[in-house]
Amino acid sequence: MKPKTDATSTVPPTIGDPSPKTTIVTWLAVTLFLALIAAISAPFTTFLGDSAYAVVGTIHGLLATLGVLVGTITGYLGWRLFIGKLRAFSDLKLLSIVSALVSTGTIMFGNWIYIGYRAAGGPRRFFLDNNPEIHEIFFEFKEFIALFTLPLSVSVAFIMWRYDQQVMEERGLRSWLGIAFAVGWGALMIAFLLGAAITKLRSI
Amino acid sequence: METGKMLKRKNGEAVAALMSAMVGLLVLGIMHLGSQASSGFNQWLLSVGQAWIPNATGIGPYSGKETFLLIGWLGSWAILHFTLRRRSLKLMIPMVIFTAGLALATLFVYTPFIDFVLGK
Fold this sequence. Notes:
heterodimer; A: 204 residues; mainly alpha; B: 120 residues
């Protein structure tokens, strides 16, 4: 009996090679096993601290980090779209939705943690007493520029899904979307970096 | 019979989506500028946020500014969508307005520029 062959593959199958499915299942099993050991043995809660906003702040930070990862890939694919050399159109479509969802989540948790930032004795009071420019220039700019990502990512995602492949055919629309992707990525990076820098100076 | 020929969607909906994002952000910038110019307006923005956002007092007038971002964005999107959906437009002028609007919105949330405008 002949072994099954992939019609598109030029590499002859070798008996005994692991299939992609076997590789992924094995990799997942080993990773989950190690993660379980780490979860049981490592004192992760000490990272969170004892602040009332510890969990909220952690979720905000994780979402923002995820946003940078997703946003950077999206921004790169947006650049490829802008210059008319995008091949991974379906990837960009999917990432545009993910970007919009991550932006929404990050802003919602950002709003929540902002209560702690403004609370009596919080970082805002500390900065105003010791170095008002940190709050008045950098934090104020950060809190607003972060909001830029929401309407831009949602509008871009709407267009990517509504117009689908037609986006590739219209040079003007491609250029405009390229600008929107770039501005969204820039806003995301500014908000992330300022957030990280301010947290380093005084966390909640 | 027209098989395989894709019907092209007019670009008005795309223009509406992108322009409304710019309008919302510009409204946000104008509200922030207004709040810096007048403490009474700042207080009014807080009351707007308190009307619907849980714990809005905790985030202060920012809640009202977010409210107007949403109203400006989604409101203008609805209006522009139904106005432009059956139209195909040349994109150069809207794209320039979009870019200039975003640049202004950015300046309106940048404290040194606000201080310059308000003569502080």
